[in-house]
Design a protein that fits this description.
- The protein is of the alpha/beta class.
- The chain is built from twelve helices and ten strands.
- The chain folds into two domains: about 120 residues, Glutathione S-transferase Yfyf (Class Pi), Chain A, domain 2; about 130 residues, Response regulator (Rossmann fold, 3-Layer(aba) Sandwich).
- The chain starts with a strand and ends in a 10-residue tail after the last helix.
Length: about 280
């Protein structure tokens, strides 16, 4: 089976993970949305205007539809919820639909489809846990996880069936997997632009969040944390720098971790070396 997906990185998406090589082993063809913009979630959190809540996320979907991709896939659950939430808004009222069409026209991003179910966004875990794709994951994994204890951080992703499938995959490779699903604070903890990130929330919130998840890793005897959501991963890594802890659990994002399982050079360096140095992954 060969799948083709339109990939939307979002502001918190991995910048240096070789997604194309990873998905090639999964037998999934990736078409990146090169002209992407922020999904609008961070600014919409503080200024819930129609532009921030609807136009920004739907521009990405509209660009994808113009190229034949009815669905977007993202590693950020915040982006997924923002895009699907915008669709829900335009589906609720013809006036909103007309307003969105008018606003998207200058970007050449008019939606060909607006009905939920015929278009929208999915998290990458939705395709990774597809039976044929996770079979490819297992067949191409070169690392045994025997002796590894993992805290699988699911954030606000609530499809327990697919989380269970991912847990079974890691279990079958030998890992002991614990689950933790508290919200990371999402877009409320940051305001990200394509140029830079700037903290706009009380840093104590971030530090406390990181201490709680670090405590959970300690309580479960987890060697490291794997975050399935890129926003969660970023907020946790930001929390490392803001906390006063001397020792903390290393963290890897979902796609980096799959690269680690495939034996890609550089993937998972932090969880292997178990130190706090900032590293570049999967170059």
């Amino acid at each position: 089976m060969n799948k083709k997906i339109a990939y939307f990185p979002g502001c918190a998406g991995p910048r240096n993970v070789n997604l194309e090589a990873i998905f090639k082993l999964l037998d999934v063809e990736v078409e990146p949305v090169l002209e992407w913009n922020c999904c609008g979630a961070p600014p919409a959190c503080y200024k819930p205007s129609f532009f921030n809540r609807v136009v920004m996320p739907l521009r990405n979907l509209g660009i994808s539809q113009q190229k034949g991709g009815d669905f977007l896939y993202s590693g950020c659950q915040v982006c997924v919820k923002q895009i699907n939430g915008a669709l829900k808004i335009v589906n609720s009222n013809s006036m909103f639909e007309n307003q969105a069409e008018y606003s998207l026209k200058p970007f050449n991003a008019n939606l060909k489809k607006i009905k939920s179910g015929s278009t929208g966004a999915f998290h990458l875990i939705d395709i990774i846990t597809d039976p044929d794709v996770n079979k490819n994951l297992l067949n191409n994994a070169t690392r045994s996880l025997k002796g590894h204890s993992i805290l699988l951080y699911t954030g606000c992703y609530h499809d327990n069936r697919r989380v269970g499938i991912l847990k079974e995959i890691l279990n079958s490779l030998g890992a002991d997997v614990n689950l933790y699903g508290e919200c990371c604070g999402g877009e409320k903890l940051q305001n990200t632009t394509p140029v830079h990130s700037k903290r706009i929330e009380n840093i104590d919130n971030v530090g406390m969040f990181f201490k709680l998840i670090n405590q959970k890793a300690d309580e479960t005897g987890s060697d490291y944390i794997v975050a399935i959501c890129s926003m969660c991963e970023k907020n946790i890594k930001d929390g490392i720098g803001l906390s006063d802890l001397d020792i903390f659990a290393p963290i890897a994002g979902l796609m980096e971790y799959i690269g680690f399982l495939f034996g890609f050079p550089g993937c998972g360096d932090l969880i292997i070396s178990n130190n706090s140095e900032t590293k570049e992954y999967c170059l």
